[in-house]
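Input record (one chain):
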Amino acid sequence: MNPIVHTRFEPKTCSWQYIVVCPKTKDCAIIDPVLDYDLANFTVSTQSADALLKIVRKEHLQVTHLLETHAHTDHLTAAYYLQATLWAKGHPHAPICIGENVNIVQSFCAHRYNIPKEEFKNSFDHLFKPDEKFSIGEMTAVAIDLPGHSPDHGAYHIGSNVFTGDSLFLPDIGSARCDFPGGDAKTLWRSMQRLLEFPDTTRLYTGHDYPPNNEASARDPISFVTVREQRETNKHLKGGSTEEDFVAWKGGRDHALSEPIMLHQALQVNVRGGKMPGRSHDGKALLLCLVSVPKVLLTG
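The corresponding structure, as predicted from the sequence alone:
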């Protein structure tokens, strides 16, 4: 059975959010919802998440799962906000789910940001094992283990669709970076090859789209292409690219990239499943921002 897929693009972080619906029961899963964050004013808002709830209400849907492909480094997750809001409106509890290797990311972030264990332990309701099956209404879904971009990264195979998160982007963008802690270019290559093993007509829904900025090549954001299109036109995979070529190129390019502008805020919220830190000041959550200080300033 193929789902009905509602797509929502969040332009600030160029993130795709998905509502995946069982056409028979109207049960649905929400994948990678975004919590809006204003870096200039340090404020959180819920416009993007509320737009998802508007679709749920309009289509008379029942949210049965809140699915994360990984602990994102470029935007805050709205999973906990959606769970709490739906519960308050009388909906059944919708579990927040992610791959079991999120424990690796949580341990790293707990050390880096001094996060108390009680603030991230059991912050997800369910941790998927590799290739674990679960149901969304009468549809069977599979949680695919796709590490490389991060150790906890996964995707969701539902009908003739795979929601790939940040493992594989659109053909003109290529593939995700793998220079974050626990990322690995060889592992990412193998994860991408696994996606290309699906039938040619399988739709691969991406986690982000970054349309070209110049007017000559500008296009509207795209949520998916087929496996065939990825295999034939993805700029990091086509033309007989080998694993060795990919790993060598990734090692040079990725380490030259600047870090995502919401990296520290996103990780601290996302390893908590979308909850804010317990520490606060005048009612505002305290998020630790790590700043790289030039050595000359430290030595005088």
